[in-house]
């Protein structure tokens, strides 16, 4: 039997951690809750951790991932429109209807106004969805985030707190656009090397996101006790609305089940790490604004995994029936 190389072993660990990131976040969050001193330091480096995660995402973007924007423009366009309408409006409606305090309302709206998260690509793969489409939508929504996210937060969050549009643009450019573009450039220059280490790249994002969330939990342990249940309820509703309406958007297009799955997951799974980073960098006077993003990071991986399991069964069933008809 051929002995596995160190790179292959790390790649296996990376794949395992990516698949079970939701459980890992829960496990370390529990530790951070009861032993905050071990993770409290991480919040000082939230922007750096997110920048590293975005850099890792950029390194995974290939030319064919960008090409999908031109080969499937309808689905990519609908996915991005749904991303920046369904989730921001759902966040605003939930914050208003549930009369959330300003800090929490702002945090929920920040989550809703962020682009799709990289975890959506992994969940789409597990669900048997169209991974190329998922990556294309994530790429486009991320690249336009420096304009869309600050604009939407300014419009929707301004009812609760004062929002500086230019400061937010600057934050998103620094922690999202620059690292992603740098990763894309390095991939194009050293594609053969990047391809060799591609299996370990998800590990970069996993570690970064886990440390962001653990740091937030460690620094907000007491506040989680007082309002964690309320935030979790809002997060569950917000995420559920994204999945249902995202799936509906795919059905209205008349897309295949694989594309419907990709669109639904993309819409519902936000870059909540960005929401946490923006809250910490731009709204220091509203410390609880980081909490919805932290809890969303945990929940959307759990709900996404359950949704993926259900969709995979449906996709497999449809493929089986199609094969039977072809044979018949």
Taking pLDDT < 50 over at least 5 consecutive residues as the criterion, the unreliable ranges are none
- Biggest beta sheet attributes: none
Shape: globular
End-to-end gap: 42 Å
Give the amount of beta strand, in percent.
under 5%
Give the total of beta strands: 0
Kindly report the average pLDDT value: 81
How much helix is in the residues?
A: over 70%
Structural class: mainly alpha
Q: What is the radius of gyration?
A: 19 Å
Q: If helices are DSSP runs of H or I spanning 4 or more residues, what is the number of helices?
A: 17
Order of helices and strands: HHHHHHHHHHHHHHHHH
Task: Report on this structure.
The chain is mainly α and 328 residues long. It is 80% helix and 0% strand. The chain contains 17 helices and no strands. α6 crosses α14 and α13 (201-219) packs antiparallel against α17. The model has no long low-confidence stretch (mean pLDDT 81).
